[in-house]
Write a structure and sequence with these properties.
InterPro entries: Emp24-like (IPR015720), GOLD_dom (IPR009038)
Membrane topology: Single-pass type I membrane protein
Number of helices: 2
Number of domains: 2
Structural class: alpha+beta
Order of helices and strands: EEEEEEEEEHH
Subcellular location: Endoplasmic reticulum membrane; Membrane
Radius of gyration: 29 Å
CATH class of the largest domain: Mainly Beta
Main location: endoplasmic reticulum
CATH architecture of the largest domain: Sandwich
Helix content: 25-40%
Strand content: 25-35%
Number of strands: 9
Organism: Lates calcarifer (Barramundi)
Length: about 220
């Protein structure tokens, strides 16, 4: 995971396809998580908040007035979700562009009294792709047998693997284009340096010749 903390700015973290974690957040802090997602992939995020209680020296469930604001941006930094939630929440979105999606959370509270001790703990669970499917619910709804449900799971996994492979090819193509562009720039810079050295050498030779002729040494 990649993590960086800044007040009122961004925290960047790599998240695996299904990963639960918790973190502490301050009154003015915003924490953002980067998820590399293939196109047309569903993502579900669930969170709950806890406030630090000095009397019990432990984290307790947050008050109803405390909530979180969730903002999600696609790889082109276009906002695809921006919404206020309560102390516990669930958000869902589907990617339409492959690449790094930014999931940001910050408290919607402006009352410092709610942050007694300056600690707010946020439990976050993010699921990607086939991990978002509730297979027991699907089996009950479609009346699937255990074998049929297993086949459904395998088909979903194969579909997700294909999306991941397509995304890896997309990344490889972008990396190749970047490498070729860099190599071309290095080549032209080397040529420019060589030309500058040649021109400088010719100028120095002419300058020295003029100097010697002026001194009548040649």
């Amino acid at each position: 995971m990649r993590l960086a903390v800044k007040t009122e700015t961004t925290v960047v973290t790599w998240i695996y396809p299904s990963h639960a974690l918790y973190f502490h957040i301050g009154e003015t802090e915003k924490k953002c998580f980067i998820e590399e997602i293939p196109d047309e992939t569903m993502v579900i995020g669930k969170y709950r908040t806890q406030l630090w209680d000095k009397q019990t020296s432990s984290f307790l469930p947050s008050t109803p007035g405390l909530g979180m604001h969730v903002e999600i941006k696609d790889p082109d930094t276009k906002i695809i979700l921006s919404r206020q939630y309560g102390s516990d929440g669930r958000f869902t979105f589907t990617s339409h562009t492959p690449g790094e999606h930014q999931i940001c959370l910050h408290s919607n509270s402006t009352k410092m009294a709610l942050f007694a001790g300056g600690k707010l703990r946020v439990h976050l669970d993010i699921q990607v792709g086939e991990h978002t499917n509730n297979y027991p619910e699907i089996a009950a709804k479609d009346k699937l047998t255990e074998l049929q449900l297993r086949v459904r799971q395998l088909l979903d996994q194969v579909e997700q693997i294909q999306k991941e492979q397509n995304y890896q090819r997309y990344r490889e193509e972008r990396f190749r284009m970047t490498s070729e562009s860099t190599n071309q720039r290095v080549l032209w810079w080397s040529i420019a340096q060589t030309l500058i050295l040649i021109v400088t050498g010719i100028w120095q030779m002419k300058h020295l010749k003029s100097f010697f002729e002026a001194k009548k040494l040649v």
